[in-house]
Amino acid sequence: MVDLSRSLRMDGASDPGLIRDHNEDALGFDAALGFAVLADGMGGYNAGEVASGIAIEMMLHTVREGLATRDAAVLDRRGVPHARTVLEESVFLANSAIHGTAQSQPQCAGMGTTLVATLFFDDQVMVAHVGDSRCYRLRDGVLAQLTRDHSFLQEQIDSGLISPEEARLSLNKNLVTRAVGIDPAVEAELHGYAVQVGDLYLLCSDGLNDMLEDAEIAEVLDDLRGHLSLAVARLVERANAAGGRDNVSVLLIEVKRPFPARGALWQKVSSLLGGGRDKR
């Protein structure tokens, strides 16, 4: 397993906000693995925090196990990097665990969670998400949203029924069209992106982007570049200052050095050892 802790710096925090009496968000990260995940739970009583907690625990465990014997950059016989396979498997297992718990424990019935996760490998990042938790990238001072919300509002925007500006004022912000654990199966949306030194990636729950405009988020990230813990704290502080109507969670990943795979020779050796392409 490749250790990415010298190439990536990660920091994050979760806060209940000013209105909610408990926190249904959860997050987890491991810079050595190049993995980060954030979840925003939903459900009656405290079931939302149960769902998000299960998602984080299951996904961290699955990624660690999946990368213990095969590097994320290794391609399968379809030419798909192992990073994608591991992320898909982690979401599948999280969904199964949450759905199974909801079915067996009446107090957890109907619980689920949105989530967003990143797995870095070979100067790339694979991003997976379900629901309206988001991933942004700050590059050269420009903030780009890398995920597209699975939400009723996003569908209205896409169909031209409302504008993005009108969407910010809508009362239907919490209506997601896809979530982990609600049904026996769920489809995560996955995309890969090339990574550059200096990139800053933000994972957040909607408690941040519902409170702050993208321009304000970009301003904080740019001003506090290189000071991840301060940037995390400032974003949470500003979300609460803007009303803090929801739990707010922020996870930042800074790319400090390149982290290319170990090259074609390594791929060949890995294949001979059973860790590369399937020749069947």
TrEMBL record:
SMART domains recorded: PP2C_SIG, PP2Cc
Domain PPM-type phosphatase, residue spans:
9-255
**One Pfam family hit:** PP2C_2
Q: CDD domains, per this entry? A: PP2Cc
Q: What is this protein called?
A: PPM-type phosphatase domain-containing protein
Q: Which organism is it from?
A: Chitiniphilus shinanonensis
What's the source species' lineage? Bacteria, Pseudomonadati, Pseudomonadota, Betaproteobacteria, Neisseriales
